[in-house]
Structures are given as structure tokens and as C-alpha cells.
């Protein structure tokens, strides 16, 4: 059959070809394995919008659940008296750290229940420890024979179960933590003895694991850790990140942190973590994350935790507000027990944060730092803004409830300005600028049963001139 082509047909075909080329070109930007190139890659929007994530530290260290997740090092590396005495008093001679693995049973681990808890907590992403410095992998890695969660202990793919539960039951993004090095791995110790001029550990363990994790579970976050001795050339980090950005199955959505080699933290990567529990209290222009733990002394579960070691809900919400106000995300850690149960005190804290976010989430999710991070007159007031509207909506986060009228020095009101309390069903608050410097807000007497939340209240300011 003869085919007749019209000028219109040719035009349409050429237009489609041009459009296809434009689309393809968006996916053919090639990042080179240098920080000069890798650091130009835009951070995917979802991460900055999310603001709040949950960190989960879980592994063989959850069995002794004493001192911290660094128990093996405390016991046989640093030989700290507390850990050594604990083992002498409670375990027979000849007991090794590897013997703990069979006791890591995870018998009550229910990934769906975890996913629901994280959803109720208001988390927009999670970061699950796939492997800590002990080297035990929470997935059936081909590169960790008999030292993984399928071969010994739980006899389950813990990473896979949680990934499926998160994706099938929530809209939470799934991320993975992975430690580059391992305390007592002979290959690593040999590379270290060679002053890191050899890369046997990296070639046989670290990099194969990372590629395996990404190709198998497709995480939206790779949270790297542990590069305290060797630089990123030894770890081959930049080669991996270039693959991650160019060719991996998550190249369009994945975000990474800054711990890829000695000297990289706070200088290179998608978002900065700088140090554990990093919260500078002032605006940091580059996107950053405050990774902190509900237990102020440990990331892993400790059986001897004292209630005073657990941060209060007021302290946690303060961390969230001050972090988001200064351009950070909060990554709040809990450590489950070896049985797979997130203990009630940590469940309570997560649910309390979630209840606060249900009321005040509009001032957190998708917000941006404002011109001022905290108030110029009144302490304990922090700001965020929604700049997707014109003019922007300003949120004043009150870490205290005012005993009398409230004075705010940072906002400059217009004649159209309104002041409302988020979640409060009553009328807008009255305000003036006539008596003393600053915005004078008349705080009404509100019955406790009408208060929208129990901790930290948010005023919504509209039509602010600055």
C-alpha cells in the first residue's frame, strides 16, 4: 500500500522528534566523578519539602543493648571498663560478638506496624540502617556471607520487608543508611595497615554492597557514614555517586548526604550533616540535616535507659522548629529492641510529634526560611514562611505561651495583616503598632480545652510587608 505524506504529517513528526530530543537531553546530563561536577546536581525538591524524617538504628548491637550501638568497639576495641565488666559478669569465657547474632531474632518485627507508626508520626521519609560499623547487613547481601539477617538471626530480609511495607502502606520516602567501613574486617584492617594505598576492602565489600542496595531496593536516600580515616579516593565514593546520578534506577529522585570521605562532611554532597546532632541555630544556605536521637546518649536501643536520657516532647519540637527555620531537615532517631519492638516511650514521642504536625504541619512541610529566623525582640519565637503565595504567609512559632500580650520585633505589618492561631476555632487576634516598637499582639484568654495543641503554638501572619 502506498503511503501519502502531507506537509502537516511531516511537521508533526519533526515536532515530535524535537520534543523527544529535548526530553532525552534532560536525562543525558552526565555528571563527572569530581566534586566540581557532582555538587552542581540540583537537590530533588521532595527532600526540601519533606522537612521531617525518622532514623532507625537496628542491628546485632540491639542484642547486648548496652552502652550504645558501638558496644563491640567499646568491648574489644577501646576495651572500656564498663563494657568489659558487663561481658565478664554476664557471659561465659570465650563468648564472641558474633555469638550475639543468633540472639538477634526480631521475633516481633512487623514492618507494616512500623510503617503505620512512622505515618502517624508525620514522617515524610525514613532512613533505615542497612549496615552499621559492625558489618552485619540487614539484608541478604552476597558480600556478607553468614553475617547478614537471612543467614543468621532473624532469617529474614529486614530491609526488603520494611521497604515493601513503607511503599505499600504510606507515601513516605524510603532511605538507607550504610557505613563505609567495619571495625574488625580483616580486609579493611589490611588496607589501613597499608596506609590505604590498597583498596581490597572497598572493592570486595563497600562498593559491591552499595550497588547491590541501590539496584535491589531503590532507596531515595543513601545516607553514608564512617569515613573518619580515609579520603573519598580510597572509598571510590565519587565514582559511585556519579553512577547514582547518571545511570542508577533512582537517578532522578535520590539524595545523598556529605559523609563520603575524610574532609567531605559539611563541604560536599546533596545535603550537609556536618556532625551528629548538628543544629547551628542560624541560617545555613546549603540544605542540611539535623540527625539526632530521642535517646540523648545512644542511637541504638539501651536496656538501661533512664527516663532523663529521653528527650521530652518539648525538646523534640524545639529541635524540629529551630531546624526547619534555619533551612534544615530533622532526622529523628529511635532504636528498636532486638525483638523488633519500638519501645513504648519512643512510640509515644513519635506519636506526640505526629499530633503536633497534624495541627501545625502547614508551617513546617514545604516551608522556607524567612528573612529572620528568630525574633529580634522576644526570645523563643522562630519563623518559617510559605513563599508560594503572594504576599508570603509568615509563621511565628512560639516555644512558650505568652502570659500577657506578645511583642514581635521582626514582622512589619500592613493594614491588611491578620494574626491567627493555627488550629484555633476562635477569631483572629487583635494587634497594633502604636504603643512600643514592634508588632503588639493581644493574646486572648483561651480555655485549655480550646487550645489547638499542648506544646509550641504557631501564629499565622498574612500580608506582612517584609
Automatic annotation (TrEMBL):
EC numbers for this chain: 3.2.1.51
GO cellular component: lysosome
Name this polypeptide is given: alpha-L-fucosidase
Residue ranges occupied by any Alpha-L-fucosidase C-terminal domain in the UniProt entry: 373-462
Record's function text: Alpha-L-fucosidase is responsible for hydrolyzing the alpha-1,6-linked fucose joined to the reducing-end N-acetylglucosamine of the carbohydrate moieties of glycoproteins.
Top EC group: hydrolase
Domain of life: Eukaryota
Positions of the Glycoside hydrolase family 29 N-terminal domain: 28-362
A GO MF term: alpha-L-fucosidase activity
Organism listed in the record: Candidula unifasciata
Signal peptide: 1-26
Gene3D superfamilies from the UniProt entry: Glycosidases, Golgi alpha-mannosidase II
Alphabetized UniProt keyword annotations: Glycoprotein, Glycosidase, Hydrolase, Signal
Single GO BP term: fucose metabolic process
Family: Belongs to the glycosyl hydrolase 29 family.
Amino acid at each position: 500500500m502506498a503511503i501519502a505524506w502531507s506537509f502537516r504529517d511531516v511537521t508533526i513528526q519533526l515536532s515530535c522528534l524535537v520534543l523527544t530530543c529535548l526530553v532525552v537531553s534532560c536525562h543525558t546530563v552526565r555528571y563527572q566523578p569530581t566534586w566540581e561536577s557532582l555538587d552542581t546536581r540540583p537537590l530533588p525538591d521532595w527532600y526540601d519539602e519533606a522537612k521531617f524524617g525518622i532514623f532507625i538504628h537496628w542491628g546485632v548491637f540491639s542484642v547486648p543493648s548496652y552502652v550504645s550501638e558501638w558496644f563491640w568497639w567499646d568491648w574489644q576495641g577501646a576495651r572500656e571498663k564498663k563494657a568489659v565488666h558487663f561481658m565478664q559478669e554476664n557471659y561465659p569465657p570465650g563468648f564472641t560478638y558474633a555469638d550475639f547474632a543468633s540472639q538477634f531474632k526480631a521475633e516481633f518485627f512487623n514492618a507494616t506496624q512500623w510503617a503505620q507508626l512512622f505515618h502517624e508520626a508525620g514522617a515524610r521519609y525514613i532512613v533505615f540502617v542497612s549496615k552499621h560499623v559492625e558489618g552485619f547487613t540487614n539484608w541478604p547481601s552476597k558480600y556478607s556471607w553468614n553475617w547478614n539477617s537471612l543467614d543468621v538471626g532473624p532469617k529474614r530480609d529486614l530491609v526488603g520487608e520494611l521497604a515493601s511495607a513503607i511503599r505499600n502502606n504510606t507515601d513516605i520516602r524510603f532511605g538507607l543508611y550504610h557505613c563505609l567501613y567495619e571495625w574488625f574486617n580483616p580486609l579493611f584492617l589490611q588496607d589501613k595497615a597499608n596506609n590505604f594505598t590498597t583498596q581490597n576492602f572497598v572493592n570486595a565489600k563497600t562498593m559491591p554492597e552499595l550497588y547491590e542496595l541501590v539496584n535491589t531496593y531503590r532507596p531515595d536516600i543513601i545516607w553514608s557514614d564512617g569515613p573518619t580515616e580515609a579520603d573519598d579516593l580510597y572509598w571510590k565514593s565519587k565514582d559511585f555517586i556519579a553512577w547514582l546520578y547518571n545511570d542508577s534506577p533512582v537517578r532522578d529522585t535520590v539524595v545523598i548526604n556529605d559523609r563520603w570521605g575524610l574532609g567531605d562532611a559539611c563541604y560536599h554532597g546533596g545535603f550537609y550533616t556536618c556532625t551528629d546532632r548538628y543544629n547551628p541555630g542560624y541560617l545555613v544556605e546549603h540544605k542540611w540535616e539535623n540527625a539526632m536521637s530521642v535517646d540523648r546518649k545512644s542511637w541504638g536501643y539501651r536496656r538501661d535507659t533512664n527516663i532523663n536520657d529521653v528527650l521530652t516532647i518539648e525538646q523534640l519540637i524545639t529541635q524540629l522548629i529551630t531546624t526547619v527555620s534555619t533551612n534544615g531537615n530533622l532526622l529523628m532517631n529511635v532504636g528498636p529492641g532486638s525483638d523488633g519492638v519500638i519501645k513504648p516511650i519512643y512510640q509515644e514521642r513519635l506519636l506526640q510529634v505526629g499530633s503536633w504536625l497534624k495541627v501545625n504541619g502547614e508551617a513546617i512541610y514545604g516551608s522556607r526560611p524567612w528573612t529572620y529566623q528568630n525574633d529580634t525582640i522576644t526570645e523563643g519565637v522562630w519563623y518559617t514562611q510559605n513563599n508560594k503565595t503572594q504576599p508570603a504567609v509568615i509563621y511565628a512559632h512560639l516555644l512558650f505561651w505568652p502570659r500577657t500580650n506578645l511583642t514581635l520585633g521582626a514582622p512589619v505589618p500592613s493594614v491588611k495583616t491578620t494574626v491567627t492561631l493555627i488550629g484555633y476555632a476562635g477569631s483572629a487576634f487583635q494587634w497594633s503598632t502604636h504603643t512600643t516598637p514592634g508588632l503588639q499582639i493581644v493574646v486572648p484568654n483561651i480555655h485549655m480545652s480550646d487550645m489547638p495543641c499542648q506544646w509550641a503554638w504557631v501564629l499565622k501572619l498574612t500580608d506582612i510587608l517584609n
